[in-house]
Amino acid sequence: MKKLLVVVDMQNDFVDGALANENAKAIVPAMKEFIGAWKDDVVFTRDTHTEEYMETLEGRKLPVTHCVKGTEGHEVIPELKPFADRIIANGGRAYIDKPVFGAEELGLFVRENGYDDVTLIGVCTGICVISNAVIIRAFNPETDVNVVADLCACLTPETHQTAIDAMKTFQVNII
To answer: What are φ and ψ of residue 163, in 5° steps?
Structure first.
């Protein structure tokens, strides 16, 4: 079985920056331990915007400039960046940059690399984690999709739980 761990949007702007969230900060130590113990492939998604973010539909609906490519806010948090650096050093692909919540490119990456089992962790459960779980499921209907609930965070515990419950309805395994 070929497995992939997807670390969703663990970027400075979501943990300590423009859209900082205490729930995201709280999962970092356990997430670091989990990724360190993971024996299979890993890829990080990064929410990726341009300086024109405020002119986009998302920017008009969420008027907080964040994760602008080339800024500190766009970078993976320091606690997890060594894992991405190690992937790159070993000749692998560490990042999938995405201009919106979910990445069609991630669904294709899973298909093209023949992953049978994909596990997601990260932020925000009710926006980017759920979007990418749906995309992986849609592009790869025979791939097991898993979400580690305790290694995901959302704006509130209630929105986190709502997303977890929703993912169960489309056959995502909640761990």
So the answer is: -65, -40
The Cα–Cα gap between 134 and 106 comes to 11
Residue 89: predicted pLDDT:
83
* Spans of all domains in the chain: 3-174
Q: What tokens does 5 get?
A: 């761990």
What does pTM read for this prediction? Answer: 0.97
Percent of the chain with pLDDT over 90: 94
Q: Which fold has domain 3-174?
A: Rossmann fold (3.40.50)
| One-character DSSP codes across 56-84 | SHHHHHS-----BTTSGGGSBPTTTHHHH
What does the pLDDT read at residue 91?
Answer: 87
Average pLDDT over residues 31-49: 97
Half-sphere exposure of 108 (CA within 13 A, CB side): 5
Cβ-defined contacts of 58-67 (< 8 Å, 24+): 58/100, 64/18, 64/19, 65/18, 66/13, 66/14, 66/17, 66/18, 66/19, 67/9, 67/11, 67/13, 67/14
**What angle, rounded to 10 degrees, do the helices at 104-112 and 130-139 form?**
40
Task: List, for residues 56-115, the tens digit of each pLDDT value.
Answer: 998 899 999 999 999 999 999 999 999 999 999 888 899 999 999 999 999 999 999 999
